[in-house]
Specification:
This protein has 388 residues and is an alpha/beta fold. The chain has 11 helices and 15 strands. Helix 9 packs across helix 11. The two termini are 42 Å apart.
Length: 388
């Protein structure tokens, strides 16, 4: 039985653990370290979960020192991902690490340096790169039927954007901004599909909608406009998929202390000279949702979208269009989560390399941090560490 310790038992890591249990691959959660350990234990008991084999700790070091573990999983708030990961890497344990793996340059460098000295196999939580959609597009690209990819347009029109302005995600000290919070996924799959090195990035952000003059700290439940505001969970005509946050814990999206940009774009140049345009926004709702990319070669174009579950190939020199329909309706993160979970199990068993390595995570965060710097300074930024 593979013994696993969890550092930070949040909503997302709970999803991955649930998938792991369905795989019945000989894994067991034996320890959980979280400042809210007592509360988490009670919540698990209230749900009817057997916690008799789990030891609960209030800090990660105590757990890591006390337990004989085969692997560790990190699901803390974003600002602690890197710091907790360094602790695990220093002990050379297999690691499942939530994204973004760092939220500032100092933590990123510390994590990079720890990874270079460690023998840990790391699976970074990048489910998009291992979805059936990306696997098919990668197969099409590698077949050569499109020719060399010479241009790429990627997009993420987020229909649940309210979460980044009303939940704890609105705190930019935790998220690092929405390039790190959302684009880290997209930049990773872009790098994976292209298979070439990014060298330069330029970016711009806007905050046009989720701002206002409502008082700081205002909760929706206390607002006089709660029954009419289109962002209010108390508006009976609106639907707000805000993860697992109770309505009474949501804050005003139009207050003076609302953080995060509500749209952002980046241009990325790769070593061949080709470039990618990427854009994300947090304003759309319902069927306006869109996430995917268009990749263009001289011979043909391929496009895909996770919301429609479709991949299409347009040949440029023959009148042919190929369409593929993918059914991931019953799968979390487009089918990517189960692949990541199995990869972590394989790493603990010593059977295979990670499908989303620490190097992939480091590069994605570096690019997101450089995008933030570009947007703030209105300059192009070389994609390299400041100390190298």
């Amino acid at each position: 039985m593979l013994r696993i310790g969890v550092i930070g038992y949040g909503f997302r890591i709970g999803m991955v653990i649930d998938i792991m249990q369905t795989l019945k691959a000989g894994t067991e959660i034996v320890a959980i370290a979280d400042p809210k350990a007592d509360e988490i234990k009670q919540q698990m008991c209230d749900k009817g979960q057997d916690v008799s084999a789990i030891t609960f700790y209030h800090d990660a070091d105590t757990m890591l020192d006390a337990e004989q573990l085969d692997g560790a999983m990190i699901g803390t708030r974003c600002s602690l991902h890197a710091k907790m990961a360094v602790k695990v890497l220093n002990r050379n344990l297999p690691l499942f690490l939530e994204k973004p793996i760092a939220t500032n340059m100092a933590d990123l460098i510390a994590l990079r340096d720890a990874a270079e000295k460690s023998t840990s196999k790391v699976v970074v939580s990048f489910p998009l790169r291992v979805t059936p959609h990306v696997a098919l597009v990668k197969e099409i690209i590698d077949s050569g039927k499109l020719g060399t990819i010479e241009h790429m347009e990627a997009y993420n029109n987020v229909p649940y954007g309210s979460v980044y302005f009303q939940d704890w995600y609105r705190d930019e000290n935790e998220t690092g901004g929405l390039f790190l919070q959302k684009a880290t996924h997209d930049i990773d799959y872009i790098n994976y599909l292209l298979g070439t090195r990014p060298v330069l990035i330029s970016a711009m952000t806007s905050k046009r909608v989720f701002k206002g003059d409502h008082p700081a700290g205002l909760y929706c439940k206390d607002c006089g406009e709660k029954s009419t505001c289109t962002n209010s969970p108390y508006n009976p005509f609106m639907k707000h998929p805000l993860f697992d946050t109770p309505p009474e814990n949501l804050k005003c999206a139009f207050a003076v202390d609302t953080g995060n940009e509500d749209s952002g774009s980046a241009l990325i140049q790769y070593e061949s000279g080709m470039h990618v345009s990427y854009t994300q926004d947090f304003l759309v709702r319902n069927k306006a949702a869109k996430r995917g990319a268009t990749l263009i070669g001289y011979k043909g174009t391929v496009e895909f979208d996770w919301f429609t579950d479709e991949v299409k190939v347009y040949m440029h020199h023959t009148p042919r269009v190929e369409s593929y329909k993918i059914d991931t309706s019953a799968m979390s993160h487009g089918g990517g989560d189960i692949v990541l979970t199995q990869s972590f199990i394989n790493c603990m068993n010593g059977k295979a390399k990670s499908v989303s390595s620490i190097d992939d995570g480091l590069l994605s965060v570096l690019m997101c941090l450089k995008a933030k710097e570009s947007a703030a300074t209105k300059t192009f930024q070389a994609i390299k560490y400041p100390d190298r």
